[in-house]
Amino acid sequence: MVSYKVTVATGKDLFSGTIDAISISLLGVNGESDQKKLSHLWFPGKVRTFDVTIEGDVGELLSVRLYKERNVLPISDAWYVQYIHVTSPEGKLYQFPVYQWISGQTNVLIPEGTASIRSTSNGDEQRTKELEKNRDVYKWKLYSPGAPYCIDADSVKNLPMNESFSLQKQISFLIGMNLVEIEIRLRGISKRTDSWGKLEDSKLLFFFNRTKISDEVFRIWKEDSFFGYQFLNGVNPMLIKKCIKLPENFPVSSSMVASSLGTSTDLVKELQNGNIFLVDYKILEGVPQNKLINKNPQYIAAPMCLLWKDPEDQLLPLAIQLGQTPGEQTPIFLPSDNEWDWTLAKIWVRNSDLHVHQTVYHLLHTHLFAEVFTIATHRHLPLNHPMYKLIIPHLRYTLDINILARRKLIGPGGVFDKIIALGQAGISDLLKKAMQEVTYSGLCLPDDIEARGLEAIPNYYYRDDGRMIWEAMESFVSRMVRYYYKGDESVRTDPELQAWVAEIYEKGFLQHESSGIPSSLETVSSLVKYLTMVIFRCSTQHAAMNNSQSDFYTWMPNGPTTMKRPPLSAKGVTTLQTILDSLPDVNTTTRAQITVKGLSKEPKDQRRLGSYPDVHFIEETPQKFIQKFQEKLAEISEIINEKNQSRRLSYLYLDPKMTENAVSI
To answer: What pTM does this model have?
Structure first.
């Protein structure tokens, strides 16, 4: 007979415990022990130790198997296990990280915590069986033609329990949404289907749910310098690019913009000097328009906007064309036009920017890709694979929030059908178009900045803060990868890793070779870059796309979700009333604001970037890498906060202390 000490830690959440009967068996190099009962009383937050005696010596421990069976109640009681520690008769400690819910009558194999890479020449039958079980749970389905695949689950109830919000997060999420809605309903305007009587009235939507920046946006929204600023540091800093040569379908001449170029007056010279920038919404051309909002037609434009970096380093709009085909019906609007013509032209650009921001760069580039990473990770990387341990903290709650979004936000009859000019059909069409334009360089911040020619443009806080985080993340990932992969050959011969990458390429990027996204990885450096991209997408990039919404969209004319009149086709005919009649109705605005406020604020149960309370890595060296990464993020946070002391508008959206580890809202 051989005696082991077994320590089991139950999660701390309110319902983490169970009264189901729990047993354990030990698996070693010499075989598996008999099943031994532990207890049927497991209280939240408790760590319990048992003496487990088995017949024979199973040798060096490889895994433990937990058995969960009904004890008294006719229903099974889910149990959250943090970790299991086993001390051998010789005093050797074996650690088994779990950090999972175990539900139903089942048995679960937990591998020893030392991370291990399986080579093509070293099969592991148990490891393969566990992944096969995962593939039965994490199944793919096609959500929309031309878009990434998603989890085959129609509601949160169909998700694996480990993917669902904690009770704390559920409650705080619902309370947050309800408080926003209550404030608007108390004002008695949520059912009005008329236009706003005055522009200023839409500011009155909130008293409690305003921010310092949203109030400043209300004050300066008509300033050209602020309009230009938002392309660098607003909700969508992803579309602007340097313009070396004017597009043929945007015939802006020097004479048109001379009065806006200060002492230069020469557009060609400014192009040559690298001071001209372009934002083009061609992707919106021909996208289906929503006809469900208050039973009235809605309108979409595909504008082009030319901007100039002036000698004071301000980014100023020079010209706006509200369509892709120039002509008499598509005039080029200029800062020298009458005030309301120019204001409405800029509002149209802000409306188009909202569509592209929400659908392409927020929904697709963070939420949907993060979902693909999540599913593929569970299907191909076992619990003790080092890359599973590295990635899993950045996939927390992503499936839950995405299913909620598909059911209540972007699905048929959802919120977007009631507030956004695209509607569900337009979103599907836009996703399909956007997938054709996805590139690997566009998903990697340094490459994206270079491709858009924005390495030197001043006051680009998204670039500056994002680059610091990318470099810190890349350094952290590099240390981890090089610790476990001793050379390029070990990357090439890791079948689990290669299957993971291949399935992401197939189900996420739809095998588009033109994207440059790899379908396999051949070197250590290519793995480092790929993992950095994945983690950055799921954390920092989502923060940039999500956390700024409340600041910039609270003042509705700065980000109208729809337009009720067609784009301007002539100059000199716009009045303030034209603008009021073009902007969303009162009830459309209130619904949009409830959505923006509710979904741009993280609920409780947060884990900030670099925070890893679940100890997946048990080795000392990787733990030191994590600590060094956390120290670097703290240093970056201090730098960002110091820079914000001298900025007109604070840019805190990439501050690691305000960035969630994963796409969870």
So the answer is: 0.97
Q: Please, which pLDDT band fits residue 54 given cuts at 50, 70 and 90?
A: very high
Residue 321 to residue 250: CA distance in whole angstroms: 7
Nearest to 95 by CA among 623, 616, 627: 616
State the amino acid at position 173 in one-letter form: F
CA–CA separation, 413 and 569 (whole Å): 32
Predicted confidence at residue 74, as pLDDT, reads: 64
The DSSP secondary-structure symbol of 568 reads P
Q: What is the pLDDT of residue 653?
A: 97
Alpha helices, H only, 438-575: 440-443, 445-451, 461-484, 488-492, 495-503, 524-536, 542-546, 549-553
Q: Which CATH architecture has domain 356-550+615-658?
A: Up-down Bundle (1.20)
Residue 532 three-state SS: helix
Domains 2-114 and 356-550+615-658 share a fold: no
Q: How many CA atoms lie within 13 A of 647 on its CB side?
A: 18
What CA–CA distance (Å, rounded) separates 155 from 153?
6
Instruction: Write the burial class of residue 662 (CB in 10 Å: 0-12 exposed, 13-18 middle, 19+ buried).
Output: buried
CA-derived radius of gyration, the chain:
27
Centre a 10 Å sphere on the Cβ of residue 489 and count the other Cβ atoms it contains: 13
Measured CA angle at 73 (ends 70, 78), to 5 deg: 60
User: Where does 2-114 sit in CATH, by number?
Assistant: 2.60.60.20
Express each pLDDT in 357-416 by its tens digit: 999 999 999 999 999 999 999 999 999 999 999 999 999 999 999 999 999 999 989 999
Predicted local confidence at residue 177, as pLDDT: 83
- What pLDDT is attached to residue 549? 95
Report the b/e string of 210-246 with b at 16+ CB within 10 A. beebbebbbeebeebebbbbbbbbbbbbbbbbbbeeb
pLDDT digits (tens, 9 = 90+) for 313-332: 999 999 999 999 999 999 99
Cα separation of 12 and 110, whole Å? 20
Neighbours of 18 (CB within 10 A): 25
Neighbours of 21 (CB within 10 A): 17
Span between the terminal Cα atoms of the chain, in Å = 52
Report, in this order, helix, strand and coil percent for the chain, each rounded to 5.
Answer: 45, 15, 40
Q: Reply yes or no on whether the pLDDT at 205 is more than 80.
A: no
Structure tokens at 14: 């309110």
Q: Evaluate whether 415 touches 505 at the Cβ level (below 8 Å).
A: no
Q: Which residues, 6 or more positions from 16, have their beta carbon under 8 angstroms from its beta carbon?
A: 10, 44, 45, 79, 80
The H or E element that residue 481 is part of is: helix 461-484
Q: Residue 662: what residue type?
A: A
CB atoms within 10 A of CB 394: 27
**DSSP string over 352-367:** HHHHHIIIIIIIIIII
Token code pair at residue 252: 């802006």
Residue 408: half-sphere exposure toward Cβ, Cα within 13 Å? 13
- Domain ranges, ordered by start, for the chain: 2-114, 356-550+615-658
Cα(326)–Cα(249) distance, rounded to whole angstroms?
6
Residue matched to tokens 């188009």:
352
